[in-house]
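User: ok so my PI wants both of these folded by tonight, can you help

Assistant: No problem, let's get them done. Here's the first:
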Amino acid sequence: MTNNHNNTNGRVHGKVALVTGGAKGIGRASARLLAAQGAHVLISDLDVAAGEALAAEIGPAATFIRHDASSESDWRDVMVHLREHHGRLDILLNNAGILLHANIEDATLQDWHKVMRVNADSVFIGCREGIALMKQTGGSIINLSSIAALAGRDDYVAYSASKGAVAALSRSVAALCRRRKYRIRCNTLHPDGVLTDMTRGSFPQGLDPTRMTIDSDPMNRMCLPEDVAASVLFLASDESRAINGVELRIDSGQMIMSI
């Protein structure tokens, strides 16, 4: 697939986007869609091979940079790259994250710190650095949270807490940017289940995860990365210019079900 980077009719035409954890899953689908809709996308990830392959696939509308999203020094390098090559940042998708299966009785403090560092610290640093570059021209920050931030998941205690931190942080960022008149919006996306390489590993051996998607049964909860990317595009575009500080659930209606 090659995207048309000269798409002058695209919904994010001329915008510069940074997608962390952009080499796979939701990040990959979002990078493809943003580029197809006219943005230049900087894909950041620790997986150099996958990131470079995706940038090559997309074409001139994308570049790749190696990036540990939990590292302050790596964030500084990414910001230097954006300033030198684009002079601006319009869209920041804080997508990098990990999943760790453990409940409150089984999880170690090391587990907790690892998940928090990748899932929450990275968003804190990203928002801080992103605002510094965005505040002159405005922009949209989109943070990947989870339905686990809103509902109780006994089997993913550190993950749930990290995503709750992302949601609370995002509300604070949205409020500050509005109060200071930066024209920067900050919203969170809360998927319930997304069929990615990361989530495939959580399924019991022998179970085909594609049978758990809404494509096979509307009562199922899992969607595809492209479903989340569609919401990323909306929040990244000027169509959502009045939407700030919201928590958008992408859960196929799971949260409203009482049985």
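One down. Here's the second:
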Amino acid sequence: MRVLVTGGAGYIGSFVVRHLLGQGHEARVLDNLSTGTGRAVPDVPLDVVDIRDADKVEAVLAAFSPEAVIHLAALKSSAESVRSPHLYYDVNVTGTAGMLRAALQHGVERFVFSSSCAVYGSPQICPVDERTAPCPQSPYGETKLTGERMLGWYARSAGMRYASLRYFNVAGAASDASLGEFTSESTSQLVPRVIDSALRGTNLEIYGTDYPTGDGTALRDYIHVEDLAAAHVQVLERLNSAEVCGEYNLGTGRPVSVQEVVEAIERRSGLPVPRQPRPRRAGDPMVSWADPALAHRVFGWSPERDFDEIVRSAWLWHTSGEQRQA
């Protein structure tokens, strides 16, 4: 298939592009490079376009005529969304609506949407499955849920097949350190933040150490970025009927605490990570881990890599020459 990947020069998007190419698909990337880099996708055409620029989006679709869209372009920090909700509604809702409109106008047959476990908020029962009623606790989660609902209405109106993939916490890198997350000091992702603190000897801020969990820190479900990317391609290829359209969790079903993440990276690196406890942040759930059984039943997808591999590959990437040149 010809597949347009929005946000394809970002962390997750670049792995999705690599998997698409590996499966023989033709890919093109649309990205404004606000967080992505062309270095992550050297082998595909890259259009530096913001998804809110309707005319330029229209021109890209007219030139490429994609059969499918994988839509990852979005803002993604719960904490930032609480401070600046207008930005999240502008990019994640207005931008997604424009992309959907253009996709329908150009006859796109399949649409895979990057959603988030943030649509669940703080679930009362974990692992959480897709029958759980969404209850976002941040503008970020709310905008992702709105994107899911828009996609359903738009797609059903034109017979376009679709899936919304609710990611849990994505981490890790290619096993050979050939690709990973090109981070900055402002990254909100925990694993690269811990690694950075280990390397620099700087304090790691831990938001919430008084949760009613085993060690007082929040519990999350960490999925390897390679497994997540493979899921996108597998779902895309198997969107063969209206019956499989819908929302799907992508996680491992195994919770890991913030404290356990820190300790795992200390073991891998042999370096101490100084901690600085901070108050809980608005919009952060206490616990969140997935029941990913539905994606397995419908699409045959299951994660193959464990948390140790996430830490091993992330450490290798973030200490590699490639990442240091970022």
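The first strand starts at residue 2 and ends at 6. Residues 2-171+222-250 form a domain with the Rossmann fold fold (CATH 3.40.50.720). Good luck tonight!
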